[in-house]
Specification:
With 431 residues, the chain is mostly beta strands. 2% of the residues lie in helices and 50% in strands. The chain starts with a strand and ends in a 21-residue tail after the last helix.
Amino acid sequence: LELIGGEFVLNGAAFDDPTITLATGDVFTGTLADGSAFIFSRQVGDNLDGMRLTQTQLPALDTTPRFVSTDISAIAPSGLRAGQTLTLQTGGVLGGNFAVVGATLNIEDGMVGRGLEIADGVVNISGGDVGFGFNAFSGSVVTISGGSVGKFFAFDGSEVNISGGSVASDYDALAGSVLNISGGSVGDNAQALFGSVMNVSAGSVGTFFEAHPNSVVNISGGSVGAFFEAGINSRVNISGGTVGDRFRARSVVDISGGSVGAGFDAFGDSVVTISGGSVGEGFNANTGSVVNVRGGNFGPDFDALPGSVVNISGGSFSDDFSAFSTSNVNLFGTEFFLDGQLLDTLIPDEPFTIDDRGGLTLSGTLADGSAFSFLLDDTRLAEDYFSVNALLTVTLVPEPTSAMLLLLAGGVAIGRRERSRTWEFLCLPER
């Protein structure tokens, strides 16, 4: 096969070799002999193996801004060269596989066919309809403030800003891409793939969103639908907005504000830290997970399941707190009472094991100043449940100060059982 044209560029650098073979992740751009720009990449299934390149004289470059309000799909080059600008207006039509290389495409209205591609250029969408399979490659900046866009792929080195309009289901932000959502809507099954960054400050993201390994998702506003999954080695920071039911965490999750719906699952090897906001009914700390509660509000039915570690220094809890066999629940506070009797022999900063499960009430004030009360009952018939085989400790800390809150935020040992003593109830009256 022979490719005849010029302005050949491989991964952002001029390419003068007589043949081209694409490696994984390569992006090869240029201009064909008729003046049409092209983009080839193995990331979208293109496979050039030893293709011969023939340089030829290209049509003169016209950088005069062009405004299109008719169907030019059959009468004009199928792309824009470096330095060119085209604005699509009402009645305008661009054909499929239109390529934007180092150029600017403004879509105010009209229609763009399937397979629009951009590399090292700018696409601004404020209206109109863009077909399925829009690909943004390295160096591209896409701004969507209106209109509708079909299935979208943002590749390494691209930036996508969505403040309005709608993006269809199955959006993929791939490794090295950045997606900023401040309005508009993204459909179901969106994915932040390996190494990508997604920022949601307003607008909406549909159901079944997934954060893949080494991706970062920051939610400060807007809404994300149900069945959000934070995959292994991803990081999710929630400081505002709303996240739907059935959040599944397999990584690092920090919640400092906003709200998360019912049915939160923290799975093995996840570290979930809640310092603010609210979490709905049915929080499950599963085997191998570590949950640090430093603030926030929880609905009923919080379960520390076997093999989990739950460190509580703040926040408020509803009914039905359960600590199952082999779970580890550690409370950090400024005072603790057992059935109204102050535990006045506690040594500051030394964990103290509570073994009683006879229906007494453990209450007090947590490190953030929040009051708490748990019924220590192992019959499964009371409002709270603490298995006799669950480890429960209390640790006395100084009155909350800014310095202590910083210490709690970063310095609490997670999941390590320190030297402890067992409280003997020899002086308590019979019940």
